[in-house]
Amino acid sequence: MAESAWEALEEEIRLCEACPLHSGCAHKVPGQGDKGSPLMLIGEGPGQREDETGYAFVGAAGQLLTQLLSEVGIFRDRLYICNVVKCRPPQNRVPEPEEQAACLPFLRRQLELVQPRVVVLLGATAGRAVLGSGIRVTRDRGKWYQANGTYFLLTYHPSALLRDTSKQQEARQDLRSLRSRLVELGLTQTLAQ
Ligand code: SF4
Description:
Blueprint: H1 2-15, E1 32-33, E2 39-43, H2 48-53, H3 60-71, E3 80-83, H4 97-114, E4 118-122, H5 124-131, H6 137-140, E5 144-147, E6 150-155, H7 158-163, H8 168-184
Parallel strand pairs: 2-3, 2-4, 4-6
Antiparallel strand pairs: 1-3, 5-6
Bound molecules: iron/sulfur cluster.
């Protein structure tokens, strides 16, 4: 049942032309990982490498994210990861509000299917899409939010960490907080044993 729901969702994403971003992308990037994971990460949108491959967070930013997660003992292959928009915005610009709105129903369905206990929001676009328009990364990163039994943590997008490496210590602090939350909730299946 869940498998067919995933297949239907990914097919809808593949065929989607609901916003102008579809015309410029080589591949849709629906997201990937452990679809039954208690941990879900959400970014902004695919970059060049993601557009080329069809997989989320596989370029330089994704490699940095994988490294930072591994430093706190979290395995990339034990979480689910996706973006707010599934098509690459030109020149990696921030997706327009109408583009985000058109794509948001896919993200909502992904959240319903994965049913994560913990969600990490990578950057302002993901933070605002999920938590509301008042979110500011510089002010709100590292804070925990809770809704309907799910915990949400806002932190920097790894692309911002590549542009400004001085932010990496704060990101490490946020990921240590994430690890503590996973341990507190007994969700150690996402961690290296
Ligand atoms: Fe459809 Fe989302 Fe791609 Fe826009 S970004 S065309 S809504 S899949």
